[in-house]
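4.2 Preliminary Data

To establish feasibility before requesting continued support, the project team ran the inverse folding procedure on a target of 269 residues. The structure was first converted into the token representation described in Section 3, and no sequence information of any kind was made available to the design step. The complete token record follows.
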């Protein structure tokens, strides 16, 4: 989840996008020293603890939901008023010609042309929101896959226990050993030609690719040189039947340019 956004000193122009209010877990927002204009939107971010929109070209009154922040959060905006700044008058005075609306230095014409080509702050926010949504979707799919595998193994274990009733103790110990070996097997999709098990993965050299709120991704190189990416989830909350259904759907999905194909899955009962 995105907790902090710092886009200061980037010469962004335009208005502050109202889409920022969709980042409900945001605790810090720093937009100081840009060329932002227009009024400040009523963000209504309940977890926001730090705000800085100083030294821009913002105007109008400070929204009620942001009036609890200090004067330093809004200074450098000559046409901005209302608590914690001075009260708004009926007619805002024209800015003195001897002072610019923003303390930012005037840019040469070439620099202004180059800065106009940069991404606006709205596009940056949209990219971040879209990226978070994609990560969340992938995590949910992997979570469902693990749960389906876990429920499948639970059902198989129950069947083995029922079929072993009436056998002698030696036979039960032998059967138990077979079941333990089965738990180390990965469930591969029909289209996958790989042939390795959990022990092979545990012996492989591993490199952490990234960590998220749902688990950690590793790059594993097997003893035969095969390279795979392993996603280990922290928690599983879905049922067995739902997990199996989702895995069947994933197995039928073709290649996607932005998503690695799922080859196998494993869940410890």
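Position-by-position output of the design step:
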């Amino acid at each position: 989840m995105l907790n902090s956004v710092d886009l200061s000193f980037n010469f962004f122009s335009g208005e502050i996008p109202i889409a920022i209010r969709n980042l409900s877990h945001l605790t810090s927002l720093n937009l100081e020293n840009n060329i932002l204009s227009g009024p400040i939107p009523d963000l209504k971010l309940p977890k926001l603890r730090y705000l800085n929109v100083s030294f821009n070209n913002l105007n109008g009154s400070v929204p009620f939901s942001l009036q609890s922040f200090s004067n330093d959060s809004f200074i450098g905006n000559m046409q901005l008023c209302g608590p914690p700044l001075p009260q708004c008058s009926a007619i805002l005075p024209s800015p003195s010609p001897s002072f610019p609306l923003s303390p930012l230095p005037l840019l040469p014409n070439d620099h202004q042309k180059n800065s106009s080509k940069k991404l606006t702050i709205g596009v940056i926010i949209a990219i971040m929101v879209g990226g978070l949504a994609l990560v969340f979707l992938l995590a949910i799919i992997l979570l469902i896959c693990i749960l389906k595998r876990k429920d499948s193994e639970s059902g198989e274990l129950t069947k083995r226990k029922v079929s072993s009733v009436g056998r002698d103790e030696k036979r039960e110990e032998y059967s138990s050993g077979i079941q333990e070996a089965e738990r180390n097997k990965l469930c591969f999709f029909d289209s996958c030609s790989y042939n390795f098990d959990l022990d092979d993965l545990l012996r492989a050299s591993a490199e952490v690719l990234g960590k998220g709120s749902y688990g950690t991704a590793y790059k594993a190189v097997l003893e035969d040189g095969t390279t795979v990416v392993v996603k280990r989830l922290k928690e599983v909350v879905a049922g067995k039947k739902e997990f199996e259904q989702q895995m069947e759907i994933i197995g039928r999905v073709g290649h996607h340019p932005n998503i690695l194909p799922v080859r196998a899955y494993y869940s410890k009962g």
